[in-house]
Amino acid sequence: MFTDSTTPNAGIRKIKQLFDEGEQVWYDIYEAPGIEGAIIHATVPRQDQSVAAVARYLLGKGTQLPSTSERHGIIAAAIVADAPIVRRAARNGWRDATTFVTHRTVVSGRDNAEAIVPPNGAFAGSAGHMQDCGDLDGWRSLMLISRFSTAMMVALAAAFAAPLLKIAHRPNFGLVLHGPSRSGKSTAQLAGASALGYGQEEDLPSLNATGPGLIAVAVAFNDHALAINEVGTARGAKRDVYEVVRETTYGLMNGQDIIRHPSWPGSDGGAAATFQVLVLMSSELSPDAWAARKGEARDEGETARLIGVPVLFNGSRTIFDLAPKALSGVDLAAWEKKQFQLLREGLPNFRGRAFSTYTEWLARRPELVKNMVRFAVPIFESAVAVPAMSPVARDIVAKFGVLYAGGLLAIAAGVLPLDMKRLGAALKRACLAALAEIPNPQAELIADLKALKAKLSGASVLDTETCTRKQLRLMHNADGFRQIKNEGLEFVVRSEVFTKWFRSELRRQRVLEWLDAEGFLDHGRDRTTGRSIQWAQRQVTWPDTSRKRSISVYLPGGFADLERAF
């Protein structure tokens, strides 16, 4: 109620003068009682200085205004009143070496820092998904579970490593925690995301989004970890998931928003916003497995940017590869179920405090942080890298070194309840597992040619020189046949059978291309790229006079022609 019209501060008052750095616009923020009893806030563009304009904004927010005869003087006094100046940051992340903007607060290492608030924005998690709940001690107690899981320790290290990318002068990169359904990979991912404020898997962003939409989210997560749940939910058919993964990899890891025309609302004169993120995905398949399903292979640049990390180690069935050694069988399963339950019930109630506490600790010690990063990354590299490693492998090791630095600093900040030795061992284990999954095309080709030799010499490919007349009549039941031709051996195999001999379309294609390049493949069409093998097929008349679509191979030197590749 407005009982004293001569005291405007008793009702409507200006509480802030806000400069939005992104929009480059000033606002006045007013506070007033609402019609439902609660205090409301109205943000009014500073150019709207008339009493009528301010009254409209207040009414639109549900303000309980005084009578018409009283309101003019009260609102006019509020308009001319002074108020503290506050700046709304244009973006999240590092503002300078001692100020970090999170989604819900701004932390500073300076006691006399200017008043700053986080930016507004409709990004993933803005609708109440990312929150500060419970206290830091409660979250730390819950995260003690992570000492039993390599995957959880990797995810947590990623959350705390993201702000270090700029400090370490490292480019954006991503991790894909992959493993079978119900192994706990999404739980491990959520544990890392809980440091930022997520409490449930369904609240995490997914790949079921447009490219520009994901880029917009990445801009909002500048200098933060960006958790993207379940790669398999990507838009489109399953066979096309890899195309989305590839586009996402280059889009997010490039670190630059789409360049828009200057006339587009919100554009900065046509300039593109830049961002640094550390992406943390989960998936049932590794990035290379998604590529192989599409019949393609990832190039080296993509492999180094998006790193597949398995979540199962040492024969474990779940992410808890470091469970107490005394447990096995039914007891182990019951213990694992209990840990998942504790995380599922606890994370919604304890989340968000860790990251703001951590970034404030970083902001108060810029030189120490810089020195620790310079120390930690080479230490990890020296513990894992070997002289024979490829440039891609060395790059992956260096990126895990940034994870190591993030974990060490989170421990030093009193946020992460782990010891450095255990964390280092977990990250080394995960890094080596990731390196082991990098495809080796030459090794795969050799293995597949050995497998091809075994199939061609096996009983399912009939030898026309030794089989009976009955076997020749029943040739249509065989996978194929072989026969002497000139000085060598000819092999004819049903196309559909040949296809099933290899682990992926990519590996089958690689074998066919090798046979063609060596002059061993008998076909009548020009070679084509893509998944189809029609170019490699022929209509062949079999010994039983039937005609079948077949793969025809002639080895002038016999099996020795294949063995030379070994």
* Strand-residue proportion: 15-25%
DSSP helix fraction: 25-40%
Provide mean pLDDT, rounded.
90
| Rg, nearest Å | 31 Å
The secondary structure category is: alpha/beta
Anisotropy-based shape: elongated
The poorly predicted ranges are 1-10, 261-271
Instruction: State the helix count.
Output: 20
Q: How would a textbook summarize the main sheet?
A: 6 strands, mixed
Termini gap: 90 Å
Give a count of the beta strands, DSSP E runs of length 2 or more: 18
Explain what this protein looks like in three dimensions.
- This protein has helices spanning about 50-60, 70-80, 135-145, 150-160, 165-170, 185-195, 210-220, 240-255, 285-295, 300-305, 330-345, 355-365, 365-385, 390-410, 420-435, 440-455, 470-475, 495-500, 505-515, 560-565, and strands at about 15-20, 25-35, 40-45, 85-90, 95, 100, 105-110, 115, 175-180, 225-230, 275-285, 305-310, 460-465, 480-485, 490-495, 520, 540, 545-555.
- It has about 575 residues and is α/β, with parallel strands linked by helices.
- Strands 13, 14, 15, 16, 17 and 18 form a six-stranded mixed beta sheet that branches. A five-stranded mixed beta sheet has the order 3-2-1-4-8, with helices on one face.
- Helix 16 (about 440-455) crosses helix 19.
- The longest helix has 22 residues, at about 390-410.
Quickly list its features.
566 residues; 5-stranded mixed β-sheet; 20 helices; 18 strands; disordered N terminus
Tell me briefly what this model is.
The chain is of the alpha/beta class. The protein contains 20 helices and 18 strands.
What is the element layout, followed by pairings?
Blueprint: E1 13-20, E2 25-33, E3 39-45, H1 51-60, H2 68-80, E4 85-88, E5 93-96, E6 99-101, E7 106-108, E8 116-117, H3 136-143, H4 150-161, H5 164-168, E9 173-178, H6 185-194, H7 211-220, E10 224-228, H8 241-254, E11 277-283, H9 287-293, H10 300-305, E12 306-310, H11 329-346, H12 353-363, H13 366-384, H14 391-412, H15 420-436, H16 441-456, E13 461-463, H17 469-473, E14 480-485, E15 488-494, H18 495-500, H19 505-517, E16 521-522, E17 538-541, E18 547-555, H20 560-563
Parallel strand pairs: 1-4, 4-8, 9-11, 9-12, 10-11, 13-14
Antiparallel strand pairs: 1-2, 2-3, 5-6, 6-7, 14-15, 15-18, 16-18, 17-18
